[in-house]
């Protein structure tokens, strides 16, 4: 049996879905147990509008996670991971990812069903991250013996700490990206 592709949404329906997802992120980031009614009020739509687009609360959360993961994948694409010099790509990707992760904290914190589109996107992002790190390694920016999956995990931790570490003094994505990349490549040891 061949599945029929979902028809694209009309522009007004697409705006409505986007408003619902943005409102859901705002509301659920503050109160993860918020009701569909609270999300509808925040989105400025009727509760029936939400139910027309999303069968239930879980479907809304899954759509939210998928939308955020797509934006994260686009943030990586916008950093030109395959063509920009590795250091430039790392900086651009990091600044872009910080902006997306800062805006979609609830959605990106959801444990994805391993078979979901969001989980597949996250796996692809991790693969692409390792590819950029391999390019940086080939350029001598990362030690030739470094375990690149470990480096990726440290990089992710630095991004997470930058977003949730409690230091609100510097929130400029470019400044934070420079700090993250510098720490990743040079650590905290003395400089030559």
TrEMBL record:
The keyword Transcription applies. Keywords: DNA-binding, Transcription, Transcription regulation. It comes from the Bacteria. Residues 14-72 form the HTH tetR-type domain. Gene3D superfamilies: Tetracycline Repressor, domain 2 (1.10.357.10). Residues 35-54 bind DNA. InterPro entries: Homeodomain-like_sf (IPR009057), HTH-type_TetR-like_transc_reg (IPR050109), HTH_TetR (IPR001647). This is TetR family transcriptional regulator. The lineage of its organism: Bacteria, Bacillati, Actinomycetota, Actinomycetes, Kitasatosporales.
